[in-house]
C-alpha cells in the first residue's frame, strides 16, 4: 500500500502485506511529526519527494526514519510536448487563502503562522510593473476574496477562477498547454525549510514544453537553473527570468521537456518506488527502534 494520507487508520495499514508512506510535503510532514502535531502509524518504508529530507542539509528533524528519496513523477504520454503557438500569458493554477497555518513555538510562545500562496505572492505583487510579460493567476477564490482579487488585479495581474480553467483534468491540461509558461511562487514553508521542492504542476508545464519561472526553494543536486526551469529569489530575478525565457523561447521550451524526461519520467520514478518497496526486506519503524522526537521547530 502506498499511503499518501499521513494519519491513516492503522487498521487499514494492517490489512496490507507491505506499506509505504509517501511524503509529498517535505519539511512540513517532518515538522508536524516532530512537534507531535501529527501521529503517523508505523510503515514498512518511508518515501519522500524532499531532496534534503534526512540529510545533513535539512533544516528539520528526520524523525528517526530511514527516508528513501524519490522524485515527483509526470506521465510523459499524458503530457506530450506541445509545438502549437502558446497564448501570451505566463500562468499558474493555485489556491489562495486557505486554512494552512503552522503552529510554531518561538521564544517560549506558541502562535499560528500563515503558510499560504496569498502570503507567497504578496512579495511579488509589483512584478507586472517590472516586465512587459503578461501574467495570469488561476486561483481558487470565494466571495470574501473579492477585495484580494481586486488588489491583485490592481497591480497588473490577470486573475481567473481556477474552476473556469481547471474544472476537469482535461481543462486543466488544456490550460497549462495553452500557456506560454508558468510563473509561480512557493509557500513560505518551502522557503524556510529549503527543501528543494518542485510542484507536480510545474512538471506538467515542463513536460508540455512550457518553460517555468518559479521561486527558489533551496539548493538542488539535480534541478537545472537557467534553461527551461529558472528559479528566483527576488523580484528582480523573477523579471530577469521571464526576460531570459522570452529572449530564446524555443530553446527554453525544448529544455523544459528534457528536464521532465531526464528527471521526472513517471516510468522511472515508479520503477524506483517498486524496487525500493518490494525488492528489499521491509523496514518498519518498530524494527528500526526509531522514535519521533518531541522537538519544537521554528519555521
UniProtKB/TrEMBL annotation:
GO terms for molecular function: transferase activity. It comes from the Bacteria. The keyword Transferase applies. Keywords: Transferase. This is Glycosyltransferase family 1 protein.
